[in-house]
Amino acid sequence: MSIEAEALLQEAKESIEAAQNYRSELQQRLHGLSQARKQVRGSSSQAREGLKRHFSELQTAVTRLLTERLSVLLSEVDVIEQDSVRPLDDCQKLIEHGVNTADELLREGEVAIRCGLGEKEDKLGSFTKKALQIQLDSLPEVPVLVDVPCVSAQLDDSLLYALRDRVSRHGSVSSHPPVQIEELQERPGSVLVRWCKVDDEFAVQDYRLQYRRSVSGQYEDTYIGPEQEFLVLHLDPHTDHLFRVCARGEGRTEWSPWSVPQTGYTTLAPHEWCPGSEGYILSSRRNIAMRSDSSPSKAGVLYSNAPTYFCGQTLTFKISATGQVDKRDSIGVCVGCEGEAESLQRDQAVCISTNGAVFVNGKEMTNQLPSITLGSAVTFDMEVVNLLPISNNNNLSDGGNFKLRVTIGSGNREVVFDWLLDQGVDCLFFGCSLAHPGWKVLVF
Fold first, then answer.
1. Could you tell me if residue 395 is inside a domain?
2. Transmembrane segments in this chain: where (predicted)?
3. Could you write out the DSSP letters of every residue in 172-210?
4. How confident is the model at residue 296, as a pLDDT?
5. Final residue of a structural domain among 169, 190, 208
6. 274 belongs to a structural domain
7. Domain co-membership, 321 together with 436
8. What whole-number distance in Å separates Cα of residue 7 and Cα of residue 13?
């Protein structure tokens, strides 16, 4: 084959490969468009159902409230009517009784006048005596109309105008939520969720973060507050979770629409303290250690269950209860476990004491952090800085000069230093040594 033919063949192969890549990219974009269309139509359907359900519930509730109010007002009318008619009925009975008595008296008077002369005198005397007993000049009092209740209903049309105004402004429809999830970062047994505000005109008072397992379950609140990130703890590794966030505007009670749910997971096992250590009691998840009084004189160092801390991560210790301070107290990380050690203030370890002193390989630094108190959070961040090549094949286990750049933060201060080790490491243990009972430490 000639050189020109080979060049043409090569060009043809490159064109075919470019066409395949082009087709693959177009297919990915078609898939993206399909997902976008699915999101638009799916969210629109959910919005319609939500609006219909909400307004149907409102209509039912308003109808019930109006019916209940009407029943109360009608009952009030019935009570007023009954109380007002009762004395009128009593007066009517009295008058009707008087009329009957007068009719009877009239009949007796007519009889007395028409009777014969022999008995006329007796009849007229009896009639006159009876007329005097009846007291014909005494009449019952009938109330004038101005003193009789005239029931009426006072209905304020302003309710209708206020209701019309509120209904016209009730609810809203938006094409984009004011906040969106920006980043999902895996941590040991947890996921750090960061979000941001995408609507500059929306003044945020609080954010609300929810999550659930992606396969099933209901969303549950995990954070409400002003921060724009939160570490969601106690997640099972290698399990997808859905996260969503919304916001509440300043001076408002209702929450904004939810952000587009994002799927996150962690492949890292959660940090756990080692069970069975003398002088320490662990929580069910083994992420909280409490210094007990079962061994008040000597408890040694409580280590992690495994070397689960990797460089590039942030390791956090949260103090949820405190005890008496001792100079041997320490919280930090180490290369290995030394069962006989009384404190982390030793070789192959970096730590901070409860009084704020920082120790590197057992030596106290001049820089000091704030003392550890109730609610304190101590963070450790590390990155690899090699002084010399560890070996020709860069195997961390072959030995050599190895340096980690360590940042320890406590309160609003931090110290940064280089930790020199005689061998390379890619994972570290963490630990604590607390001399007196009462301390409680959460690690994540």
1. no
2. none
3. ---SS-SEEEEEEEEETTEEEEEEEE--TT--EEEEEEE
4. 60
5. 169
6. no
7. yes
8. 10
pLDDT on residue 117: 66
The Cα–Cα gap between 14 and 21 comes to 10
Measured distance CA(32)–CA(26) in Å, rounded: 10
Based on the structure, what is the number of domains in the chain? 3
Contacts of 32 (CB under 8 A, 6+ apart): none
Q: Does 100 share its domain with 23?
A: yes
Domain end (from 129, 148, 169): 169
Q: What predicted TM-score, i.e. pTM, was given to this entire model?
A: 0.62
Residues 6+ positions from 53 with CB-CB distance below 8 Å: none
Listed residue (272, 326, 331) closest to 301, CA to CA: 331
Element spanning 359, H or E = strand 357-360
The domain of 213 spans: 179-264
75 occurs within a structural domain: yes
What pLDDT shows up at residue 269? 87
Same domain, 233 and 201: yes
pLDDT at 397: 44
Q: Which two tokens stand for residue 435?
A: 């001399």
Burial label for 248, CB within 10 Å (0-12, 13-18, 19+), is middle
Q: Are both 377 and 428 inside the same structural domain?
A: yes
Q: Does the pLDDT at position 99 exceed 90? A: no
What SS3 state is found at 235?
coil
pLDDT in tens, 326-362: 998 999 999 988 777 889 999 999 999 999 999 999 9
Given this model, what pLDDT does residue 229 score? 95
What average pLDDT does range 237-255 have in this prediction? 92
Task: Indicate whether 118 pLDDT > 70.
Answer: no
The residue that leads in pLDDT, 91 or 392, is 91
